[in-house]
Amino acid sequence: MPKLVVEHISKSFEYKKILNDLSFYVDEHEIVSIVGPSGVGKSTLFNIIAGLLDPIQGEVYLDGESILNRPGNVSYMLQKDLLLPYKTVEQNVALPLLLKGCKKKQALIQAGELLKDFGFEMVRKSYPDELSGGMRQRIALLRTYLFSANLILLDEPFSALDTFTKSEIQSWYLKIHRNLGLTTLFITHDIDEAIKLSDRVYVLKGSQVDSFDSIEIDNESKKVDNFLLSAAFLDYKKQIINSLEK
Ligand SMILES: Nc1ncnc2c1ncn2[C@@H]1O[C@H](COP(=O)(O)OP(=O)(O)OP(=O)(O)O)[C@@H](O)[C@H]1O
């Protein structure tokens, strides 16, 4: 059974249909990216999966159970890290545990341990504005993970970072995704990023999105030296660009 099943979702805003009978799935431990032009309905889809928006029709299943209109079952992180500026890194990371009813002392101990496990002990007592953009995003990703490890929705989380930092954090995310056994659905405008991170890329396009091309990225092909310069990488890129231009 897939981890996430999205079935026959339709959504309109003020009589304008954005999504029309759209269905797709994400398997456990996969990273699946959604790419598509601005305004096509990517964030709308995420908001429906997160239970924050009510579709006109359709169902969303997580591990076989409906999560339609039921927020709190998946983790959701946006481009901006939204760390609370007046709280330390440790207090920020502890926040999801407090929201789940954990006692403050216990939450801080757990947050501290997680930060240590991930090698962030030095910044435990720092405030977000004392950190680099890349470090803030890593802390925010850890906090997102603590909300719910079930399914992580990431809406362009790395788009504001410079190329070097972005590349580092992508590799870091691949590592923690594997180590923590996560399942991730990812929105990005960056085709290279989608290929680098994903097992599968869905290309959304047109008005009233009712289907999309699905491009499988073979993980074996990523094992070559300099994958980003390889013929396989360029071939995936061509497929995605052709799909967007079709
Ligand atoms: N609450 C709303 N009320 C009315 N229209 C909305 C609302 N939210 C989104 N829309 C419209 O729905 C369409 C899809 O928006 P959405 O934000 O899902 O697109 P997107 O693909 O995520 O775009 P981007 O890549 O720019 O973030 C857009 O035309 C947008 O203006």
Task: Write up this protein.
- The protein has 246 residues and is of the alpha/beta class.
- It has a domain at 13-22 and 32-83 and 150-229: Rossmann fold (3-Layer(aba) Sandwich), CATH 3.40.50.
- It has helices spanning 42-49, 89-99, 104-117, 133-147, 163-180, 191-197, 231-245, and strands at residues 4-13, 16-26, 31-35, 57-62, 65-66, 75-77, 152-155, 184-187, 200-203, 213-216.
- Strands 6-7-8-3-9-10 form a 6-stranded mixed beta sheet, sandwiched between helices. Strands 2-1-4-5 form a 4-stranded antiparallel beta sheet, with helices on one face.
- Helix 4 packs parallel to helix 5 (163-180).
- The radius of gyration is 18 Å and the shape is globular.
- The relative contact order is 0.17.
- The mean pLDDT is 90.
- The site of adenosine-5'-triphosphate (ATP) has 11 residues, from helix 1.
Give a quick precis of the structure.
The protein has 246 residues and is an alpha/beta fold. It is 36% helix and 22% strand.
Report the CATH C-level class of the domain at 13-22 and 32-83 and 150-229. Answer: Alpha Beta
Instruction: Briefly note the structural class of the backbone.
Output: alpha/beta
N- to C-terminal distance:
32 Å
Any idea of the CATH topology of the domain at 13-22 and 32-83 and 150-229? Rossmann fold
Low-confidence stretches: none
Helix content: 25-40%
The outline comes out as globular
Spatial arrangement of strands, main beta sheet: 6-7-8-3-9-10
CATH architecture of the domain at 13-22 and 32-83 and 150-229: 3-Layer(aba) Sandwich
What summary fits the major beta sheet? 6 strands, mixed
Please tell me how large the radius of gyration is.
18 Å
Overall average residue pLDDT = 90
* Helix and strand run: EEEHEEEHHHEHEHEEH
**Strand residues, percent:** 15-25%
Oligomer: single chain
Bound molecules: adenosine-5'-triphosphate
> Quick one: how many beta strands?
10
CATH superfamily label of the domain at 13-22 and 32-83 and 150-229: P-loop containing nucleotide triphosphate hydrolases
Number of helices: 7
Keywords: ATP-binding, Nucleotide-binding, Transport
GO molecular function: ATP binding; ATP hydrolysis activity
Protein name: Peptide ABC transporter ATPase
Pfam families: ABC_tran
